[in-house]
Structure formats: C-alpha cells, structure tokens
C-alpha cells in the first residue's frame, strides 16, 4: 500500500527528533565568511573521523558550499539562540558575532560549545538537498551546554536546569 506523504506531516514528524543546532561556516571565493544554521548535522565515522550535513539545493548559500573545499561546524552553545536565528536570515550574518580564525582561515563563531574543522571529501545528491561529507581535521570543545531544538522550539539547556526552558524556533531557513 502506497501512502502519499504531505511535506508538512513529514516536517512535523521530524521535528519530534531533538537535535543540536549548528552553524556551518566557510569562506566564499573572495575570502568572505559565509554560514548557515543547520540541524541536519551528525557524525558519520570514527575511522576515519567523518561528519555529514545537508543543505537544500535551492538555498542561495548552496553554491558557496558546493565550491568550498573546507567547512567548520560551530556547535552552538545554550545562550546562542540569537546566533541561530541570525544565520537563518538573508542578512550580514557575521556582523553580530565574534569570529575567530580556524585552519586555513575558516571563520569560527566565538562562544560555541565546540568547533569541528573539516575538509570536504564528498557531496552527494539527496532529494532536494545536497549531502556534504567532511573529514575532521581538528576539534575544539568548550565547557558550555549546547543549544537544542525540538518541535521547532529552542531549548537552552542552562535554562532547563533553572526551570525556564524554551522559545519558538524558526520554522524554516532561507539558507
């Protein structure tokens, strides 16, 4: 039996999976920092150390990442909800965040829970998205709780411990 799946139903079902929030960053062809909020990030392999993430192919950021040979995963900290929201919008995304310089000039967002710097090894089609695989070259972790999203709601884990848990997340990103 084949059932027709509605996109909103699928999106709603997937929102039931709690996940961390990242900003994937890189440099464009002119050396300017570029980034996008992503929660489709995950580890792929320990040997060799690989990670994966995806982006919708119609995103205006897609061509930048398609041409890039490196990217950084900025795992957002509990107090970086504003950073997540800003990197979902078509504004100067790096204007309001502190930036540190990673390997080969990769932009790293200050205040994150972790940074993972990668070399792109593969890009695969995945429906309306492109799936990027990166080999991890350097990781740095910080003593900060992560920002979590569940059912399109941000959860500041620091606030959860204090009893003031969440705020509504953006329903979509224009990438």
Account of the protein in words:
The structure is a single chain. With 175 residues, the protein is mainly beta. The chain has a single domain, classed as Electron Transport, Fmn-binding Protein, Chain A (Pnp Oxidase, Chain A, Roll). Helix content is 15%, strand content 43%. The protein has four helices and 13 strands. The strands form three sheets. It has a seven-stranded antiparallel beta sheet with strand order 3-2-6-9-10-5-4. Strand 4 and strand 5 form a beta hairpin. It is globular.
List its traits.
175 residues, mainly beta, Pnp Oxidase, Chain A, seven-stranded antiparallel sheet, four-stranded antiparallel sheet, 4 helices, 13 strands, 43% strand, globular, disordered C terminus
What is the element layout, followed by pairings?
Blueprint: H1 7-14, E1 19-20, E2 22-27, E3 33-38, E4 42-46, E5 49-56, H2 62-67, E6 70-75, H3 81-86, E7 99-101, E8 107-109, E9 114-126, E10 129-141, E11 147-150, E12 153-156, H4 157-162, E13 166-168
Antiparallel strand pairs: 1-11, 2-3, 2-6, 4-5, 5-10, 6-9, 7-8, 9-10, 11-12, 12-13
């Amino acid at each position: 039996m084949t059932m027709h799946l509605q996109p909103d139903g699928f999106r709603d079902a997937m929102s039931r999976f709690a996940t961390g929030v990242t900003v994937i960053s890189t440099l464009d062809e002119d050396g300017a920092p570029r980034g996008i909020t992503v929660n489709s990030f995950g580890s792929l392999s320990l040997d060799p150390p690989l990670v994966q993430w995806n982006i919708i192919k119609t995103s205006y950021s897609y061509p930048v990442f398609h041409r890039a040979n490196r990217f950084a995963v900025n795992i957002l900290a509990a107090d970086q909800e504003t950073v997540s929201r800003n990197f979902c919008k078509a504004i100067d995304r790096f204007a309001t965040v502190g930036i540190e310089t990673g390997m080969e000039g990769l932009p790293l967002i200050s205040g994150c829970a972790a940074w993972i710097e990668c070399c792109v090894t593969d890009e695969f089609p995945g429906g309306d998205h492109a799936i990027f695989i990166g080999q991890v070259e350097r990781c740095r972790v910080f003593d900060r709780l992560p920002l979590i999203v569940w059912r399109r709601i941000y959860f500041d884990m620091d606030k959860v411990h204090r009893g003031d848990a969440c705020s509504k997340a953006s329903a979509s990103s224009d990438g």
